[in-house]
Amino acid sequence: MLANNAAGSRTVKYGATKDNVLAMEVALADGRLIQVGSRSIKQSAGYDLLHLFVGSEGTLGVITQATLRLAPLSTVMSGVVATFESVETAVSAVVELRSTGLDIAALEFLDAETSGLLTREEGVNWGNFPTLLMEIHATHAQTAELDLALVQEICNDLGAIRFQATTDTAERKKMWHVRHHMFETMVRFLQGYRWQLMDIAVPISAFPPLVAHVSQTLQGLDLIGYMVGHAGDGNLHVLIPHKDEPTRQKADEANRAVVLKAIELGGTSTGEHGVGIGKAKFMEREHGTAVDVMRSLKQTLDPHGILNPGKLFPEI
Fold first, then answer.
1. Could you read off the pLDDT of 75-110 as tens digits, one per residue?
2. Using only C-alpha atoms, what is the Rg of the chain?
3. Which of 62, 85, 91, 273 has the most CB atoms lying inside 10 A of its own CB?
C-alpha cells in the first residue's frame, strides 16, 4: 500500500495513500534506519523525504513502520446508481458532479458491457447501460436529502434514464460488493482467458476524451474490452480478455495507444497500480529528463542495486 501509493474508490474524498501518511521508519540499503515525516500536520523543515519513499515501489528503501492519519466515519452515507443511454452523457455527468462541491466519497464509472455483465451474473438491475455508482456523505439527514436532490437533478439534466438512491446500509454495501468483486466475476464468466489490465489517470476535465479514445481504440483493433474506473479522480481501468497470441498482441497495442493518449492529455501511465516492469517503458515519455534525477536518487540510496532491482526505470 505505502510503497505503491495505492488508491481506490474513496480517493475522491480521502485521497491516495500518500495523503494519509504522517510519518514512517525506513530501512535503507546500507542498513540505516531513518525517520521521515512527522505526526505534526504541518512540517516545513527540510526535504519531504516522506513522500519520496511513498510510491517508490521498494526501490529506495524498505518501509518498516508507518503512522497513518485516521478519519471519522460520516454520519449519513447514501448510495446512488445512475444509468445513462450513452458513455458521453455518463462521463459528462462525472465532470459536472465533481464541480458541485458536494461531499462525494466515491464516484465510479462502468461502461455498458461491464454493467450488463454484472446485471446478468450478480443479479443487480443496472441493465446494459453506462452506469455511475456513487457514495455521498453528509453530517445530517436533511443535508443528505438536499445533496441527493442536487445529484439527481444533474443526472436527469444530462439524460439519466434511471436514478436510484438509498441510505440503507445493506443496499449500499451490496452495491460496493458487486463493484469490488467485478474482476472476479469477469474471470469466472470468461474462463480460460488471460487479461490485459490498464490503469491510466487524467485530469477530470480530460476524462471524457480519454474514454472516447479507449472506445475508438478497442473498436479499431476489433477487441472486446471493459471500461471501469474511479471516475471521480480521473482514474480509468480497461480490461481486455485474450486467448491467443494475435489477440494478446493487439491488446498490447491498445495498451500503448491508451497510455500515450493519457500522457498527452496531461495524465499518467498508472494511477494506482504502479510502474513495476510493464510501465517502465513509458517513464521517459511521462517525465522526460526528470527520469535522470530519479536514477540519481536511486544510485545515491541504493548504489549496488539491491532494492527491488529492474523496476521503475527502462533498460538503457
1. 899 999 999 999 999 999 999 999 988 889 999 999
2. 21
3. 91
